[in-house]
Amino acid sequence: LLSGNFAEIEAWQDEQSWERTRRLRPDLLDAADLRFTADEIRGYFNALGRFPTPDETRLVHAATEGWAIGVAALAKSDRATRGGSSTLFASFFEEQVWNTWDESLRAFCVATSVAEQFDPALAELLSERADAAAVMEELARTNTFLMRLSDTLYRYHHLFRDFLREKAAEECVDRAKLCKRAAEFFRARGDYTQALRFWLESG
Description:
Helix content is about 60%, strand content about 5%. The protein has helices at about 15-25, 40-45, 55-65, 70-75, 85-95, 105-110, 120-125, 130-140, 160-170, 175-190, 190-200, and strands at about 145-150, 155. Strands 1-2 form a two-stranded antiparallel ribbon. Helix 6 packs across helix 7 (about 120-125). The chain is elongated, with a radius of gyration of 18 Å.
């Protein structure tokens, strides 16, 4: 399953070779370039014999943010045009992602899901893992619903973040404690807006 923007695939053995290739070949595409547009989503559905309305197509695009794995999951489910994307993805995440992870990786993602965006320093504070940066790079490299926004800033796909937060609630993770850590982190950085938001969320 490839979007219409897909023009070239190259294999990189490590992150350094990827960055070097990107500098030498700025024409190469990254993950953001390979997202589906609404028109491409409709075309993919049509190819499967399904014909969503414009509103239904926009729903799928909004739910998946154009990510191919999400588009494929919805296209093959009857929930795609009935507003049930959250339920569908929760089941998909549970079976295809969550159940394949060990406890340490689950704990890392649950802890970091308290933040909308995070860098390695915040992730290390929230997860109490010194290898947070390496974990984030691996998750982003394997396209596990973690997107690199810049050299150091990441965020989860919003549906996956919601799934992780539901897991945190199920497992009685101390969200207030995590929010207080994040608040202190941003206060120390002088970002008082974010610090206040997390202090309020901590209760």
